[in-house]
Amino acid sequence: MKSEIIFESGDHKWIVLGRDTSKKDEVIDTNEYIIVSNGEAMLLDPGGIEIFPSVLAEITKYVSIEQIKVIFASHQDPDISSSLAMWLDLAKHIKIYCPWLWTGFISHFGMGTDFILNPIPDEGLELKIGDKGSTVFLVPAHFCHSPGNFSVYDPKANILFSGDIGAALIPNDAPLYVDDFASHIKYMEKFHLRWMPSVGSLRQWVRRVRNINPNIIAPQHGSIFVGENVHKFLDWLDNLEVGKWEMGAEASDINKAVWMKWKK
Ligand SMILES: [Fe+2]
Ligand SMILES: [Fe+2]
């Protein structure tokens, strides 16, 4: 697993982890982010059980477990939340925040631990990183793609963590930062057309993010958008007609075959 500092100013920094070549091929690659602020850390979308040992080993190059005060889970998917109980098992002091809509579902990943989840209300939350760290904002991103979903905005770094919005299935040697937006589209398009169910919700999120005007948009999969590419990305989303997926002929045939079998 690789890691890199993507922002640093005084006692405030962002680190991205990802491009894990040791993971199994069938496990989707994810980016994990850590914000370290005044010696206290917040972990954003910590990843699944499969990659927990690699994430833990890489994170401890930057912070100790004691320094991690908050873990944020943007939504319920296993590539984000299935490791949560393992983190709590390791350090009971960590406060985990996840959408209220998913607390009962994510609790299925509890694995017998004392699994306390702090619910994020639909309208979002202002969240302080530990006692000494700065404040970040949990920004509503519902139905993009999950019906209960949040982005994270850090005003101090002017970075927005966008979760699955902007997710791209890229080759392992793709650059950390998007360099040519036009050629990056092919890695994002299919993902967004299949996973994003609502044009209205996506347009709302883009409006919200334009108002915030971050310098960096950091997704949970794929390369990071900086500067001009942030605007190109938001413009691209604004013109994307999601939620219109129809099952292709091949899938219909399979479905028909299964249905005929059930009918017998
Ligand atoms: Fe997801
Ligand atoms: Fe994801």
Structure description:
- The chain is α/β, with parallel strands linked by helices.
- The chain has one domain: Metallo-beta-lactamase, Chain A, CATH 3.60.15.10.
- Helices cover 30% and strands 25% of the residues.
- The protein has eight helices and 13 strands.
- The strands form two sheets. The chain has a seven-stranded mixed beta sheet, with helices on one face. A six-stranded mixed beta sheet has the order 8-9-10-11-12-13.
- α4 (103-106) links the parallel β6 (95-99) and β7 (117-120).
- α6 (199-212) runs antiparallel to α7 (228-238).
- The protein is globular and about 60 Å long.
- The mean pLDDT is 94.
List its traits.
Metallo-beta-lactamase, Chain A; 13 strands; binds fe (ii) ion; seven-stranded mixed sheet; 8 helices; alpha/beta; six-stranded mixed sheet
Give the total of domains: 1
The top-level CATH class is: Alpha Beta
Task: Give the H and E element order.
Answer: EEEEHEHHEHEEEEEHHEEHH
Enter the CATH topology name: Metallo-beta-lactamase, Chain A
Compute the number of helices.
Answer: 8
Major β-sheet, in short? Answer: 7 strands, mixed
Structural class: alpha/beta
Q: Approximately what portion of the residues adopt beta-strand conformation?
A: 25-35%
Mean pLDDT over the residues: 94
* Strands, total number: 13
| Ligand catalogue | fe (ii) ion
Distance between the termini: 49 Å
Tell me the name of the CATH homologous superfamily.
Answer: Ribonuclease Z/Hydroxyacylglutathione hydrolase-like
Shape assignment? globular
CATH architecture tag: 4-Layer Sandwich
- Unreliable parts: none
If strands are numbered along the chain, what order do they take across the biggest sheet? 1-2-3-4-5-6-7
**Gyration radius, in Å:** 19 Å
Helix content: 25-40%
